[in-house]
Amino acid sequence: MTDPADRETGKHTSLSSADSLLENYILRHIEPESDYLKALYRATHIKLLRPRMASGHLQGRMLKMFVRMIQPREVLEIGTYSGYSALCLAEALPDNAMLHTFEINDEQEDFTRPWLEQSPYADKIRFYIGDALKLVPGMDVQFDLAFIDGDKRRYTDYYEMVMEKLKPGGYILADNTLWDGHVVEQPYPTDAQTAGIMHFNDRVATDGRVETVILPLRDGLTVIRKKTVND
Questions:
Q1: Under a CB-based contact definition with an 8 Å cutoff, are residues 82 and 46 in contact?
Q2: Mind listing the pLDDT tens digit for each residue in 56-101?
Q3: CB–CB of 177/221 below 8 Å?
């Protein structure tokens, strides 16, 4: 059983040898990581606490692929952290499209903003410091795609807010929805993060406004599509 302190700090168990070999195989057979992203990932691990929060090579290429497929004009990200996922989302955006990425931790700004503003995709990224739950509802924007990767305790709140701002036929990607397997365990009374993820998963699974699938990628990635009137 995982120690509750590990859950609160986002600590995860290490991959088994077989899993590690398989992951390395996958990484050798997908689109390579750019030198800029490699440098950002390395800096994240050297300079920031909890560097595992960064998306990394595999998930980053997955996010880029989703943007290629969906071709969104307006994208919302909740939880910028070091900016790795933001750069992967922005990389595939079509011309005149925009990513709006929100980070609630103002101490993160000094690290993250230069990486975004000095990137090849700076003109497609707007970086906000503040609580997305307070700022996004006031924006005159309807989103085609949203990536939720913020405070796990508030996932259901993020979801309901995003649904109000998401176009019919639009998509939500929610990260960490298997939470290192803790979603199939009885959460500790103090483990608000696991409880938050479980509540979110239950809410989405019973929401008639959407169709959804959970991908067992890394820590779980839920893909949600908002239905249209024709569905």
A1: no
A2: 999 999 999 999 999 999 999 999 999 999 999 999 999 999 999 9
A3: yes
CATH code for the domain defined by 36-226: 3.40.50.150
Computed on alpha carbons and rounded to an integer, the radius of gyration of the chain in Å comes to 17
How many C-beta neighbours within 10 Å does residue 136 have?
22
Q: CB–CB of 158/135 below 8 Å?
A: no
- CA 223 – CA 177 distance, rounded (Å): 10
Determine the 3-state secondary structure of 226 from DSSP. strand
pTM of the full structure: 0.91
Which residue type is seen at 61?
Answer: R
Query: What pLDDT sits at residue 218?
Result: 81
Q: Which residue has the tokens 């992967």?
A: 88
Count of positions (residues) in the chain: 231
Tens-place pLDDT, residues 103-149: 999 999 999 999 999 999 999 999 999 999 999 999 999 999 999 99
Q: What's the CA gap between 175 and 220, in Å, rounded?
A: 6
What are the residue ranges spanned by the domains of the chain?
36-226
Maximal C-alpha separation, the chain: 49
Give CA separation, 230 vs 135, 143, 226, 227, in Å: 31, 19, 11, 8
In sequence order, what DSSP letters do the residues of 19-57 get, joined into one string?
Answer: HHHHHHHHHHTSPPPPHHHHHHHHHHHHHSSSGGGS-HH
Mean pLDDT of 146-157: 98
Beta carbons within 8 Å of 103's beta carbon, 6+ residues apart: 79, 80, 81, 109, 112, 127, 128, 129
